[in-house]
Amino acid sequence: MSEQVPKWLDWAREIQALAQTGLTYSQIDYDIQRYRRLEQIAAEMVANHTILSSESILENFRIQPGYATPKVDVRGAVFWDGKILLVQERSDHGWSLPGGWADVGESPSAMVTREIREESGFEVQVEKVIGIYDANRVTIVPLEFYHAYKIVFLCTITGGQAKASNETLAVDFFDLMNIPPLSSMRTNTAILQEAFAHLNDPIRPAAFD
Prior knowledge:
The protein is α+β, with helices and mostly antiparallel strands. It has 5 helices and 8 strands.
């Protein structure tokens, strides 16, 4: 299991979400001022525990208007000869299941298919959902400031060949006993274990939080 999310981060996320939602619906100046102050408090909390400035954090908050909801991260578990496909991330050199943030206007299965092709070179067919996770609680460090869900799909290779990309350094297959150092923000051992369990049991139900 992952380490517990720091309490200060839980509080900052909740305060920011309350402020963002309040600013979306409030039409009273008094309330708007109070929600702006909550937004500032959340930014100051994050700045106090990171190297970011409260100004830059506030700017990030304010480009995401509307009712506050979790973001979605999609990942594909692709197997070949009993081994799982992992890609090495350029950003931190750790390995992960191919995938990324879901884009607006694209279905989850189409999104993960495209991410796998772009990051690994393989064409795949999506078979089933392996699990839906609270992404901020299955990683060693929070995925981002914002709350996020992670959807992991079981996929089958239909074509293509291994090829790195502008986001990945390498592409390879691994058995569960020889997993390389992981990009813990994106993939952890528990998710990989669940993926192998689905490979070995085709009728295994999807995991969820």
